[in-house]
Description:
It contains 15 helices and 10 strands. By secondary structure, the protein is α+β, with helices and mostly antiparallel strands. Helix 1 packs antiparallel against helix 5 and helix 13 packs parallel to helix 15 (339-358).
Amino acid sequence: MKQLPETKLNSLAADIKHWGRELGFQEVGISGIDLGPHEQYLNDWLATGYHGELDYMAVHGTKRSRPAELVPGTLTVISARMDYLPGDTETIRILDDPSQAYISRYALGRDYHKVIRKRLAKLATKITEAVGEFGYRAFVDSAPILEKAIAEQAGIGWIGKNTLVLNRKAGSWFFLGELFTDLPLPTDSPTEKNHCGRCTACLDICPTDAFAGPYQLDARRCISYLTIELKGSIPVELRSKMGNRVFGCDDCQLVCPWNRFAKPTQETDFLPRHKLDSSSLVELFLWTEEEFLNRTAGSPIRRSGYQGWLRNLAVGLGNAPTSTAVIDALKSRLAGASELVREHIEWALEQHLSSKTQC
């Protein structure tokens, strides 16, 4: 595109942030493309093997940490955040009721990828209308990008001890999206210094002790990884620690002091669907595959697949209080169950048999 004077670029940057808020983003920042320190952190993390089966984290070389290698011509990145926390979900009550199914708050509504990508496309259209054609690509957790590092560089927040981006005014209950651009926009400063201080609440609360230390997440022990990314058997030694968390985990966010400033989402697309915020483990376990596909259409839950869904719920039922309904539900799935699901059902039944024996 044609060169723009500095004054025009400055006003454009201000307009982009204004347009972003009009489109439903709570905050927009602009960063450069030097992610050097974060590249070293990624390499060290991969070297430890903490990524487990997340092979995609290692296969793209330096493209993940060097935006101009992923999208040639990239000069700046527009980073945007959108709140997703439903305001009327009884999060703690569900975790305290082992017969209920806990689903990570981000997955209760529609798939955020599509929602945010459409907003980013609209933002790009507004920029085009203002300055003419320019080079850009929109991303929402869909390419090899260090999105948290970019958000930190753009002043959206800081990366906390739980490895999530934290914001003093909004906590961490938000999604991120990016526009890689060939515009030489003025960049924001990473104004949000690390405000975690001596707090270790997120590290201490983790049910499976997935944190090797501050800023060091061993994904292989993380419930989000175990219930979503892992395709095989969940390690036996971690199953009882998962409780009723059947898709993702929010514990490290629930105890973060900064999340007292989080605001309920205004996006109706992110509100709970099909009573996913208040369903029992038995009820969800008895869904047929057709019901699963119908009720998770356009939902992040599809990522686990039906077999992964049943596997996770079987573990949850193994951790639930012993009852006729729980035992009957587990036994009803044994006939015709895949090898993966059968293994977890048998484990669950053993937990209840053991419980009765101890009584």
